[in-house]
Design brief:
The structure is a single chain. About 40% of the residues lie in helices and about 15% in strands. The protein is of the alpha/beta class and about 350 residues long. The chain has three domains: about 45 residues, Orthogonal Bundle (434 Repressor (Amino-terminal Domain)), CATH 1.10.260; about 130 residues, Response regulator (Rossmann fold), CATH 3.40.50; about 130 residues, Rossmann fold. The strands form two sheets. A six-stranded parallel β-sheet has the order 2-1-3-4-5-11. A six-stranded mixed β-sheet has the order 7-6-8-9-10-12, sandwiched between helices. Helix 8 runs parallel beside helix 9. The chain starts with 6 loop residues before the first helix and ends in a 9-residue tail after the last strand. Pfam families: LacI, Peripla_BP_3.
Length: about 350
């Protein structure tokens, strides 16, 4: 029976140092991609398997990355747009050729998610944390910084100390979409937004206000609604706003699920898209190409931020400074309608 292959076996086979082989197997960005691929190919051919329990005993590493998500009630059957499962898949793909694996922790509230983070940090249940859904003043972020625990957020915060993050450029999204609608002649533009406790929601409303001001249009608070971004929310807000004496001629929705609800309301009330009002949205899935009619969307495929989240996590774990690991994505505007009202 052949002896079990080790890092030294791989080093001998590749002609590389044991240090280089070890770094490659641990997903270090210090190893060039072609070198890492060569090492992984040889490891696979030799049948090498890392003894993670032994590594944890020696180094204290679990080789687990925790993703903490706050989800709505399991009894809520409403579609809310992109799910966090897509983020997990994207990050897992980046970690595929490393010893690290993603473990998802689901919480029913912000407070429960904070408790989970405290337990993970205290018991060293993971080597790093990925945290989507950030708040303006996020106690979870402050806690992980105080504990010097590696983390990357999917979203911005107002933390005084810089931290690693990936996010959509939410202010730019709003300016792109609202400027487009204003250029098409719309002056009454509704904004259906997420809960204002979330950082991205606040950024979007601030950008909405500023874009209106720059165009010489007055901000009307009755045209802004905040809530859980589901089709039910979109339809409910449309029903309410369409009854105004001066109803909106455009609905800017924070995701496609909400936009679908607005379009459902159009059907019930006998509205025609492009005649009575128009709808545009932002999202990560691009489902709106299948709506009837298809609507204009600011689209960012979820694969892009999820890949960078995984890459940033690996770099953090290899000692790179958090302030160097910050990325904002500007989505593509996909125009599927003129978005002008027909006279």
């Amino acid at each position: 029976m052949s002896p079990r292959p080790t890092i030294k076996t791989i080093a001998k086979e590749t002609g590389l140092s044991t240090a280089t082989v070890s770094k490659a197997l641990n997903g270090s960005p210090q190893v060039r991609p072609d070198t890492r691929d060569k090492i992984l190919d040889v490891a696979k051919k030799l049948g090498y398997e890392m003894n993670l329990s032994g590594v944890q005993l020696r180094t204290g590493k679990t080789h687990q990355i925790a993703m903490i998500t706050v989800i709505s009630s399991p009894h809520d059957d409403e579609w809310g747009g992109v799910g966090y499962a897509q983020l997990v898949y994207g990050v897992s793909d980046v970690l595929h050729d490393t010893p690290y694996r993603v473990v998802q922790y689901q919480a029913s509230s912000y407070e429960e998610s904070f408790d989970i983070i405290k337990r993970i940090v205290a018991n060293r249940k993971a080597d790093g944390i990925i945290l989507p859904g950030t708040r303006v003043k996020d106690k979870r972020v402050e806690f992980m910084q105080a504990q010097d625990f590696p983390f990357v957020t999917y979203g911005l915060t107002e933390a005084e100390v810089p931290h690693a993050y990936v996010d959509t450029h939410n202010q730019r999204i709003v300016s792109i979409c609202v400027e487009r609608l204003i250029a098409k002649g719309h002056k009454r533009i509704a904004m259906l937004n997420a809960d204002m406790v979330l950082m991205y929601s606040r950024d979007r409303e601030n950008a909405y206000r500023q874009t209106l001001q720059d165009a010489g249009l007055k901000f009307d608070p009755s045209l802004v609604a905040n809530g859980e971004l589901t089709p039910a929310f979109g339809r409910e807000q449309f029903f309410e706003m369409s009854m105004f004496d001066d109803p909106p001629t455009a609905y800017f929705c924070a995701n496609e699920a909400t936009a679908m609800g607005v379009l459902s309301g159009f059907h019930v009330r006998g509205y025609e898209h492009g005649r009575d009002a128009v709808v545009i949205a932002t999202d990560d899935l691009n489902v709106s190409q299948y709506f009837s009619p298809p609507i204009t969307t600011c689209y960012l495929p979820i694969s892009k931020p999820s890949q960078v989240l995984g890459e940033f996590m690996l770099k953090l774990l290899n000692g790179e400074a958090p302030e160097k690991l910050q990325k904002l994505f500007v989505p593509d505007l996909i125009e599927r309608s003129s978005d002008e009202l027909r006279k």
